[in-house]
Amino acid sequence: MSAATQPVGRRVSPRAAGDFLKNNPIYVAIALLVIVTSVVEPKFLTLNNFDNIVRQFGVLIFAALGMTFVIMAGFLDLSIGGIISLVAVVTVTLIDPIGQGPAILVGLAVGLACGLLNSILIVASGALTQAESLFITFGMSLVYGAVALMYVQGVTQFLTYSESDISIFEALNSGQIGFLSVATVVFLVCLAILAVIEKRTYMGRSVVLTGGNKVAARLAGIPISRTIVMIYAISGLLSAIGAIVLISRVTLADPTMGTPYMTQAILAVVVGGTALIGGRGSVLWTVAGAFLLILLNNCLNLLGVSSYVQFMIWGVVLIAVIWLDAVKETRVSG
Amino acid sequence: MNTRQLNLNSRIRSSSRTVLGLQKAFLAILLVVLAMAVFNLIPETRNNFFSEANFINILKSASIFLILAMGETVVLIAGGVDLSIGGMMAFSGVVVILLMNAGVPIPVAIALTLLMGVAVGAVNAFISVYQRAEPFIITLGMGIVLTGAAQQLTNARSVSSTLPDFQLIANTQILGWVPILVVVMLAVLAVTYWMLRSTSFGRNVYAVGGDYEVAKYSGINVRRTKAATYLICGLTAALGGVMLASQLNSASSIAGENTALYVVCAVVVGGTSVAGGVGGAIKSTIGLLLLGLLTNAFNQLRIDSLVSYLSTALLGIIIVSILWLDSYGRKRRREAV
User: Can you tell me the ipTM of this complex?
Assistant: First the structure.
């Protein structure tokens, strides 16, 4: 609780700054990685590289942003892998028949619909625990993935084979607005909206309170069902945005392409410091978490570490972060 | 404290009413068998579902998962969860084959691999029980580490055993038709059943999962009991990996993909509660057989090329509906109180 309830940004005394760093080791880790990487590779600290990072990890950041609210409310969404796959194949196959703009809108609508379906199942069953939401969304991820496979009969769809205009996708991949890429702008807009929802609206407070103690939240009159619908809808919608950014970058849609993002999104959220049990977290922390993972990846690539070992290191980071958090909690609570 | 004690008692009592607990998954199995019987009456959809070969086939394909599911059941009953079993299965298969290819005798290689499984379980137990970290994420991370290690050891390729004897362990048939793999599975099932039902350790596992604090004040060494369940789960996952490697005579780092969630889902579909305190070896077997039967029935029907995707979708729908009914039942009970 300590980090979340601290008023941040009023007056920062050196002592408070020290406490802040002790409570948020992720910023120390990011600073260390930035220093190490920029010494090894001077090109690292350029705006160009920042754009690269956002493009490269676009789908991860979007999926993780959506997952943040779900985890903050004390639930989990394992279906985002299936949603990303489904949205990707639906969008790409619809470009030729109905044009790129409507195809993207339909893709977003599919993501939103999947999220809403998850939330309806969870609300209707009265599931209140993380485990219940975990299994229901895992089952739904099998369904979404299978629907994606059936829809394209297991065949990869190539964006570049389409006969229609695909300028929006090209713009998403390489276009610039001012000095930022289009993908970065989309990311910043999503982040800003989510941050405002989280910090400034009743729904944002409801998410945190629901995650803190569901029984107390219900007794205090927090609309838990509406909160659940909102968090899963946001998760589905952001996964869909991530899927569209992903297909613009890899220029194809594969019916199984979303699978790895489920674990990575959870990883980014919890590495950022959002508590898995709910009630504590922020989309801004998730950006830091995703950023740390990206930096780690860049750094390990520069050092020439094999991709398998990198995969192992992700697992170790995940364990270390949660372990440290548990040790800290134990010390605080005695 | 009094209500907690009552709560614990009622949970233990409900866990012994297996017939009621089995109903949903068991009825679903009966439905699948009935549907297949109907399909067999129609000439166009006649198939080999009810043949002895297919029966063995179902048992064989369920065996590996069932060995894994037994350890997972014990962990879930104690109120934990272990998602590292998929990575563990892939990693132990790779390790046992690499050890043998390096010249270690077969029994020693298998013993070392099982020991390694227990050791990984001990790490999971230390971090999630003694350090009180969230087991869901710790074991998920451990699964990633083990999968990565298996990839690094094999360069993400499949490795085969050079010893012809190794594959005999799982595939030799005794009494003319039962593969040893099935015998091992039945032995693991029997030991788990006996351990949960007839030993003080088994009772302690239910008590710890039912209510941790009450179990603690009743004098149970809660930490050690809970930690032991992770060791058991590591052991069964390693055994599953060894048996899979022996069955295929090869091992690969992608073997464990999705295995953990599939097994946990099967166990939960069978009626073991993820909240802890409720469950059993037979329940998990029923849940796993249901998912295995479904896959097999779909393969037998071979309606068209889409059938494998359709069976995945149906699997998801079955998992969702059974868990949905469980959650809904809990909601009704909550509101009744």
Answer: 0.78
